[in-house]
Amino acid sequence: MENINIIATLFGTLITLLLSIVAYFIKQLHTDFKSMEKDLIEVKTMALIIKTEFKSGNDLLNQKVEYIEKRVHNLELSIYKNQDYEK
């Protein structure tokens, strides 16, 4: 009877120890997931900022190109009219 109590105590202690180890690793995993979530939010924010900057830069370049195209078109018309007057 005494052997059964010792074996039961040893198994109880072993099970408690193993469950404590599992709980520790689950806690560490939870902490890692929280930090990964924060990093992911930061990456999304930075990607949105970069996307916005590129979009505004692209819009500005498009405006400049349109302005230059209008000027070239006006210059072409002016040159064409001057050539007609010279004839």
Describe this structure in words.
With 87 residues, the protein is mainly α. 98% of the residues lie in helices and 0% in strands. The mean pLDDT is 93. Keywords: Membrane, Transmembrane, Transmembrane helix.
Count of DSSP strands: 0
Discrete helix count: 1
- Alpha carbon gap, first and last residue: 126 Å
Helical residues, percent: over 70%
β content, as a range?
under 5%
What is the topological layout?
Elements: H1 2-86
Main features:
single chain; 87 residues; mainly alpha; 1 helix; membrane; transmembrane; transmembrane helix
Summarize the structure.
The chain crosses the membrane at residues 6-26. This protein has 87 residues and is mainly α.
